């Protein structure tokens, strides 16, 4: 654990300049990790435009992203790299369960869960953030093809499409539901590595739970994470908040 008990600045994704909130999945991972380890932090928000402008200059890193921590050892970027930093102990390791499990979960989240939830997340984010950040998002994430985001925005206004896409996302999370069921049957858990506290594997998945809480007008927590199809996933998400002590995700306004 760090000897300095003052809060560490943790930078996440905000929608407007001056908002000290985080609506992105990646900084949520670090929020859970730090909370689990009892490391105090102070959340600071940066928009996409700020990250690719002033934050690059401030950190001296042209590839800086969020989450980023400002530590006594300098700037640390990326949730996995932050999880490897010195805060953990042998008794409370963020990589309990082994690197292979954590790498598998990380890959599954970045590929499968990302693919399932982004169609529901991206149209909200594009419209919710400031104009400069929306322009950056369009250029960097969609190659400047506005027809792609326009199509997603139009689809997101169709209740049937939202329900169908949410059902597909629940299908993806069915993998986690089965894993949690197997752990429960073996008397292990309630967390992904079979531990009694959240590890980075849990934080990896929970990142998208936290990001889902911000989305409107539809309620992704209700439609996906706390749906009756996924009772163990629903209970797992509640346990992550309860045991880690992280602030419960909520709509940012």
State the main characteristics.
alpha+beta; Glutaredoxin; 253 residues; Glutathione S-transferase Yfyf (Class Pi), Chain A, domain 2; 2 domains
Q: What separation lies between the terminal Cα atoms?
A: 34 Å
General form: globular
The total of beta strands comes to 4
Mean pLDDT: 94
Low-confidence stretches: none
Rounded to an integer in angstroms, the radius of gyration calculated over CA atoms is: 18 Å
Q: Mind telling me which CATH architecture of the largest domain this is?
A: Up-down Bundle
Side-by-side strand order of the widest sheet: 2-1-3-4
Order of helices and strands: EHEHEEHHHHHHHH
Class computed from helices, strands and strand pairing: alpha+beta
- The share of residues in extended strands comes to 5-15%
Number of domains: 2
How is this structure best described in words?
The chain is α+β, with helices and mostly antiparallel strands and 253 residues long. It folds into 2 domains: 8-84, Glutaredoxin (3-Layer(aba) Sandwich), CATH 3.40.30; 99-244, Glutathione S-transferase Yfyf (Class Pi), Chain A, domain 2. The protein contains 10 helices and 4 strands, in the order E-H-E-H-E-E-H-H-H-H-H-H-H-H. The protein has helices spanning 25-37, 48-59, 79-83, 99-128, 131-142, 146-156, 159-185, 200-212, 220-225, 231-244, and strands at 8-13, 41-46, 68-71, 74-77. It has a 4-stranded mixed beta sheet with strand order 2-1-3-4. Helix 7 packs across helix 10. The longest helix has 30 residues, at 99-128. This is GST N-terminal domain-containing protein. Pfam families: GST_N_2. Residues 25-85 form the GST N-terminal domain. It comes from Trichosporon asahii var. asahii (strain CBS 8904). InterPro entries: Glutathione-S-Trfase_C_sf, Glutathione_S-Trfase_N, Thioredoxin-like_sf.
């Amino acid at each position: 654990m760090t000897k300095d008990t003052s809060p560490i600045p943790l930078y996440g994704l905000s929608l407007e300049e001056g908002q000290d909130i985080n609506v992105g999945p990646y900084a949520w991972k670090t929020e859970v990790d730090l909370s689990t380890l009892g490391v105090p932090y102070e959340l600071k928000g940066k928009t996409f435009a700020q990250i690719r402008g002033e934050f690059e200059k401030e950190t001296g890193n042209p590839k800086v992203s969020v989450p980023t921590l400002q530590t006594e050892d300098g700037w640390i970027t990326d949730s996995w790299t932050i999880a490897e930093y010195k805060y953990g102990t042998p008794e409370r390791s963020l990589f309990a369960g082994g690197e292979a499990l954590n790498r598998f979960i990380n890959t599954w989240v970045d590929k499968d869960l990302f693919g399932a939830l982004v169609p529901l997340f991206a149209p909200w984010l594009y419209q919710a953030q400031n104009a400069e950040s929306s322009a950056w998002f369009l250029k960097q994430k969609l190659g400047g093809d506005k027809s792609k985001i326009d199509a997603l925005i139009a689809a997101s206004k169709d209740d049937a499409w939202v329900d169908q896409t949410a059902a597909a996302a629940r299908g993806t999370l069915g993998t986690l539901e089965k894993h949690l069921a197997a752990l429960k049957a073996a008397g292990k858990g309630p967390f992904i590595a079979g531990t009694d506290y959240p590890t980075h594997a849990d934080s990896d998945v929970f990142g998208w739970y936290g990001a889902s809480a911000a989305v409107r007008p539809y309620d992704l927590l209700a439609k996906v994470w706390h749906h009756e199809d996924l009772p163990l996933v629903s209970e797992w998400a509640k346990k992550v908040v309860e045991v880690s002590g992280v602030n419960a995700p909520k709509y940012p306004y």
